[in-house]
Amino acid sequence: NKKPLGNPQNTIEVLQKYDFVFQKKFGQNFLIDTHVLDKIVDGAEITEEDVVLEIGPGIGTLTQHLAERAKKVIAVEIDKKLIPILEDTLNDYNNVTILNDDILKVDINKLVEEENAGQPIKVVANLPYYITTPIIMGLFEDKIPIKSITVMVQKEVAERMKSGPGSKDYGALSLAVQYYATPYIVANVPPNCFMPRPKIGSSVIRLTKYQNPPIYVVNEKLLFAIIRASFNQRRKTLINGLNNAAVVPLSKEELLLSIKSLGRGESIRGEALTLEEFASLSNDIDERIK
Ligand code: SAM
C-alpha cells in the first residue's frame, strides 16, 4: 500500500482528495518527477545509518524516498493544512516524524540532541527560494552538527555557491559557503518537474560540511566583514572597498601593508582573491588592530 507520489497522477489524486490549495507565501512547488527524486536521495548519499532532517516535506513526496533509505527522517512543515495529508501519505513508514513548525523558529541544535544524541545529521530540503540561503547560513553559523546539506536552489544561486575567483558568479556567497563546505551540483531541474511550475530553473546542490575547518581564521566575524566590504563595490579596488566600508579601524596605509603581505598590490580587486587569501588578509588585519 506504499503508493509512490513521485508522479503527476498520484500527486493530483492526493491534492484532490484533500481539496488542497497551493499557498504562494509558502513557495509550494511539489516535485512530480521520480528521476529527480532518486537523484536527490543518491546525491545526498543517504544510508541506513543516517538521521535526516527534511525541511518543507509538502505532501511527502521526497520524504517517502528518504524514508526508504534512512534510519530516521524528521520532517518539519510550516503549513498545517499539509499535516493530515502527510500523516496519510507517510502512514506506512514507522521511521518518519512529522513536526508542524516554521523551521526558522525551531531550535535545531536541541532537535539533533534529542533525535540523534547530538551526532551529525544530514539535511535535505526543497524549500521556497527566499528562505533557502538564510537557512543554509544559519545551519553553518549556529554550528549545528551536520554532515551535509542537499538543497534545491535557483540555478543561479547554485552557480554562485560553487564559483571561484575569475568567475562572474564569484562573490560573498561563494566564500561564505566554501568556508564551511565543499559544494557539488547534483542535478539541474527544469520547471516541468514541479507542480505548479516555477518560472525559473533550479539546481540541487550538496554542501558537504568540513568536520575540521580547512583554513585557519582568528576572527570569523572580521573575515566575513572584510569579504562583504570587498564585494560591496564590485569595480573598486580591494583597498578602496575596505577603506570606504570602514569595517576595519586602520588607515589606508596600514591596509595597503596588509594587502602587500599577501604578495598583492594596490590595484588588486577583491574578486581576484581566493578564500585562503581572504583568510590571511583577515588574520594580518587582526594582528594590526590589536
Ligand atoms: N518537499 C516537497 C517536494 O519536494 O515536493 C515540497 C517542496 S515545496 C517547494 C516547499 C515546502 O516547504 C512547502 O511544503 C512549504 O509549505 C514548506 N515551507 C515553506 N516555508 C517553510 C518554513 N519556514 N518551515 C518549514 N516548511 C516550510
From TrEMBL:
Family statement drawn from the similarity comment of this UniProt entry: Belongs to the class I-like SAM-binding methyltransferase superfamily. rRNA adenine N(6)-methyltransferase family. RsmA subfamily.
Extent of the signal sequence: none
Binding site for S-adenosyl-L-methionine: N29, L31, G56, E77, D102, N126
Name used for this protein in its record: Ribosomal RNA small subunit methyltransferase A
Gene from which the chain derives: rsmA
HAMAP family: 16SrRNA_methyltr_A (MF_00607)
Function: Specifically dimethylates two adjacent adenosines (A1518 and A1519) in the loop of a conserved hairpin near the 3'-end of 16S rRNA in the 30S particle. May play a critical role in biogenesis of 30S subunits.
Keyword Oxidoreductase attached: no
Superkingdom to which the source organism belongs: Bacteria
Primary localization class, coarse: cytoplasm
EC number: 2.1.1.182
Catalysed reactions listed for this entry: adenosine(1518)/adenosine(1519) in 16S rRNA + 4 S-adenosyl-L-methionine = N(6)-dimethyladenosine(1518)/N(6)-dimethyladenosine(1519) in 16S rRNA + 4 S-adenosyl-L-homocysteine + 4 H(+)
The keyword Methyltransferase appears for this protein: yes
InterPro entries per the UniProt record, alphabetical: KsgA/Erm, rRNA_Ade_diMease-like_C, rRNA_Ade_Mease_Trfase_CS, rRNA_Ade_methylase_Trfase_N, rRNA_adenine_dimethylase, SAM-dependent_MTases_sf
Protein's cellular compartments: Cytoplasm
Chain ranges of the Ribosomal RNA adenine methylase transferase N-terminal domain: 36-211
EC category: transferase
Classification via Gene3D superfamilies: Ribosomal RNA adenine dimethylase-like, domain 2, Vaccinia Virus protein VP39
GO molecular function: 16S rRNA (adenine(1518)-N(6)/adenine(1519)-N(6))-dimethyltransferase activity
SMART domains (alphabetical): rADc
Keyword tags: Cytoplasm, Methyltransferase, RNA-binding, rRNA processing, S-adenosyl-L-methionine, Transferase
